[in-house]
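Batch job 17 of 40 flagged for manual review because the log was empty.
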Amino acid sequence: MPRMTVVMPVFNRQSELRRALASLRLQTLSDFECLVIDDCSSIPIEPLVVELSDPRFRYLRNAQNGGPYNARTLGYRCMNGEYLFQLDSDWEAYPWALSQSVRYLDEYPEVDAVSGMHLRHQDSAMFVRVRGGKRIVGPEEYVKRNLVPDCVGAVRRCVVEEWLAKRTDYFAMEFHQWFTFGLHHKQLYVDEPWTRYHVDGGDRVSVGRNERRLDDYAKFIEEHDDYLKSVDAPFLSELLFNMWLDLLRAGRASERMRWKAISGSEMCR
């Protein structure tokens, strides 16, 4: 069993994928596997993995395009590692990223995830800093604080098993898995850059309107109805309002009414 599995979904990206794979080959930790999940691309992806001639890198292909989250779940099912590290195909991992992930998960048995920071490629600045260098956040603090901006994390295998027990047909919404994680587990944040964050991929699903991304909102509500009615977390109100606005702009009136009923908020009228 390798210490770490890296799951990397990809769709119609070649140059970005080459860059990401090259960064993994420079890792100081050698005991890892990387699962490249091709989300039914229309251009060749497998040759980029084969040309590495490295048995640690495996190519898997979705039978149909399901989105980045759906592709990740294929990787979750096929992983052999003790820990999971998630890397987007347009990111680069610094050479110490995997070794530091393993180190902290080994040193802090009370946490089930550890997150380092992204460094923006435009200005080499981190999105957020961790005061004091390290900070453990448990469920009580999680519901009271603002969501941490983009960071990159590794989790224990038991967490992956919990995620696979949830619905796996989301298109792109990763938040749902970290939402339930934060309600039940502790996470360590460290003030270290682990990845270089690029946004030059032309197919970023988080930009612009995508009907399948809007469908994720309905799935999120259906799966987490009880949590949304019982968890008092400020970030949830903001999240639901932003979802409601997206649905309003898309003309999806019936789903907007569902958000109003769940949130009970005046701002969703």
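Reviewer: the log was empty due to a logging misconfiguration, but the result itself is present. The radius of gyration is 19 Å. Unflagging and moving on to job 18.
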